[in-house]
Amino acid sequence: DGLNIRAKAAGKLYFGSATDNGELNDVPYTKTLSNTSDFGQITPGNSMKWDATEKSRNVFSYANGDSIVSLAAGNGQLLRCHTLVWHSQLPSWISSGDFDNATLVSIMRNHVTNLVTHWKGKCYAWDVVNEALNEDGTYRTSVFYNTIGPAFIPIAFAAAAAADPSAKLYYNDYNLESAGAKSKAAANIVKQVQSYGAKIDGVGAQAHLIVGSVGSASSLQSNIQSFTSLGVEFAYTELDIRSTTPMSDSTKAQQASDYAAVTTACKNVAKCVGITIWDYTDKYSWIPSVFAGQGEALPWDLNFVKKAAYTAILNAW
Ligand code: XIL
């Protein structure tokens, strides 16, 4: 029994985890990650990003991404490939480059085409565009938006579809877990890409959530349906639920019920295809380094002991 077994029994494609290259030398860590009872899918946390794959213009490095691709293949796990076009973790030749519209379009198409072609047939899904929106639903300022305008999004999707027609192409962002201006704008991105004549298959809600602010399963569920009603699938792509540390017993109990609410919401919508947690153990969570004083966000503690959150997810499927 395990999280992935239960997810599949509920009709989902997978329950999965992010991982990163450095962590794979940790033998007990990799052993649990490779156990398909719990994990039927993995996402490389960093090694497919622009700064990792195209550090200098048109010079591509695939070795770290390839290691995670082979790990997944060896374990029989699906792969979510992450991410092609994002304002963050860009090499300086692009973030501080001064390109005109046509040049940046060709740089972006070249990046997308090279990565998607290199991993063609290996990626169940690609996060094609990541975090293009502000909280109020306007487009975020980025080198891509500033130079190309909103068309950078459909152009990226069209290039990805041409390079691997069978990969599921996603728009991925945070704060898309509940209704509001940002979720509405993400739905508009889906419609824009469709009206441009390009393929978009899914919306990914990162779901970097806070204990006690997750909301009910039914509100999460109706928000998922606001995306799936557009004809696309949905996934929780980077789930973690953080709090100030150390967590009290009541905070731990709240965290478990928050994990259960997210799981129930996905379970209840046929086109929610799966849930990925953003690594599985607090030992390798990104939270403490970015949100000072917060953490304990994952279902396994830093000694690989399963928490109440684990059992809550298991039972919610
Ligand atoms: C994070 C990684 O986990 C960290 O190791 C890295 O230092 C920064 O990026 N949204 C995303 C992910 O789409 O790519 C981010 O991953 C977390 C937020």
Automatic annotation (TrEMBL):
Q: What is one Gene Ontology biological process annotated in the Swiss-Prot or TrEMBL record?
A: xylan catabolic process
Q: Which reaction does it catalyse?
A: Endohydrolysis of (1->4)-beta-D-xylosidic linkages in xylans
Pathway involvement of the protein, from the record:
Glycan degradation; xylan degradation
Q: Does the keyword Secreted apply?
A: yes
**Principal location listed in the UniProt entry:** secreted
Keywords annotated in UniProt: Carbohydrate metabolism, Glycosidase, Hydrolase, Polysaccharide degradation, Secreted, Signal, Xylan degradation
Single GO MF descriptor:
cellulose binding
Domain of life the protein comes from: Eukaryota
Compartments where located: Secreted
A single GO cellular-component term on record: extracellular region
What Enzyme Commission number(s) appear in the record?
3.2.1.8
Which residue range or ranges hold the GH10 domain?
1-316
Membrane-spanning segments: none
| Family label | Belongs to the glycosyl hydrolase 10 (cellulase F) family.
- Any idea what this protein is called? Beta-xylanase
**Source organism of this protein record:** Pseudovirgaria hyperparasitica
Q: What portion of the full-length protein is represented by this chain? A: 20 to 336 of 400
